[in-house]
Amino acid sequence: MKKRFVYGLALLMGVAMSVSSCSDDDKNSSSVRNTSASTAADSLDYAADNAVNWGKYMQAVATYLNADATELYNDWNSSYDGGVSYASNFKSAGQTGSSFAAVGDATQQIIDGCIDIANEVGESKIGDPIALFQAGKTTDALYAVESWYSWHSRVDYSNNIKSIQNAFYGSRNQTKAANSLYTALSEAAPAVAADVDAKITAAINAILAIPQPFRNNINSAEAIEAQAACADLKTALESIDVTAISDEKLRLINENYVDNVVLPTYKELADANAALLAGVNAFVASPSNSKFESLAELWLAAREPWESSEAFLFGPVADKGLDPNMDSWPLSQSDIVAIIKNGDFSALGWTGEYDEESASIEAAQAIRGFHTLEFLIFKDGKARTVKD
Questions:
Q1: How far apart are CA 210 and CA 336, in angstroms?
Q2: Which residue, 107, 80, 262, is CA-closest to 89?
């Protein structure tokens, strides 16, 4: 998730909700949303007067998601920037032509990716709403919660930690592969292996222990415990020393990681987003409540491999801006409402080299991706309905 720290621009919906111990103390905060624009978003539903533009907007966003997911898989599996695949580049670490000077550099990248997402889940995804809530900015805290349109926050965050587990185990089915960090560390540094393993499980369990939905339980004891569990996991991951493992074993770890974790995850992501686009097209052709429900299921299915890939947000996904393309949060409320009204989707696209400092690229990313489609499909944790 590329997080945009502009909570006042968050796309809002379903304001009539409860947040534990929520008050109106922050009504005059400069970071609180624009009231008039928020009201327009809060009350916005799929209806006869906006159905055409709503459908086209879903198609545009789903098309971009499908293209980005397909490009990401192809970059890893086939060819990256006209050269060898990124998978080949990673597996050939330490050899001529690889962007990784030493085999251990690639393995360290695996670990660093795990550290980054453990920190992001604890300090940003869970921690930011808690910090805002505890500062008295309860409204901002609510709108800082990622994936609250679908009430899917806890599952998203637990899948982020499962992406760490997959990278550590060298598999996607909770088995510990022979050529994995876990197995190598069990021989070279067994206490470290056991500690990381235990902290992964503890973080997943702590996140899922947060009362559902997270948006209503931001300052709960369980949420605070989950944040601490993620911090403990980050510390444990930082204790891994790749120099304790031979280069021969590191190379096997890298190869297994690519073949049995990264590539199948990105393949699933590409396939799920193709199915999501097909579902959107079917809905637009013949809108119905049942098809909105089907879209909700397709969105959840596409979301799972994405959140399970966040331990490897390096390489093409970072260099090409595919992470913020697909997963920027919060979104730009006023622009999304305007697009639904005027049917102008030109602002969703951008071209050229990715520049994370570009205001125009960031603006495009703030009106597309998973969360824009989430808003268009879900309301108050349920699939939207077709209104007369």
A1: 31
A2: 80
Query: Residues of the chain with pLDDT > 90: what percent?
Result: 85
What's the total number of domains in the chain? Answer: 1
- What is the pTM for the complete model shown? 0.91
Burial of 237 (0-12, 13-18, 19+ CB in 10 A): buried
Both structure tokens of 101:
């000077």
Domain that holds residue 120: 7-383
Token pair belonging to 39: 């009201």
User: 3-state class of 329 per DSSP?
Assistant: strand
Tally Cβ neighbours within 10 Å of residue 97.
9
Does residue 162 fall inside a structural domain?
yes
Q: Quick one: angle between helices 35-42 and 333-342, nearest 10? A: 50
Establish if 159 belongs to a structural domain.
yes
What span, in angstroms and rounded, lies between the C-alpha atoms of 296 and 135? 34
Residue 388 falls inside a structural domain: no
Which of helix, strand or coil describes residue 98?
A: coil
- Which residues touch 368 (CB under 8 Å, ≥6 apart)? 60, 61, 64, 65, 325, 328, 348
Whether 2 is in a domain gets the answer no
Q: What is the CATH number of the domain that holds 363?
A: 1.20.1420
Q: What is the pLDDT of residue 1?
A: 64
The pLDDT value recorded for residue 14 is 36
Please say whether the beta carbons of 336 and 11 come within 8 A.
yes
The number of angstroms, rounded, from the C-alpha of 308 to the middle of its chain's C-alpha atoms is: 8
Digit-coded pLDDT (tens) for 45-64: 999 999 999 999 999 999 99
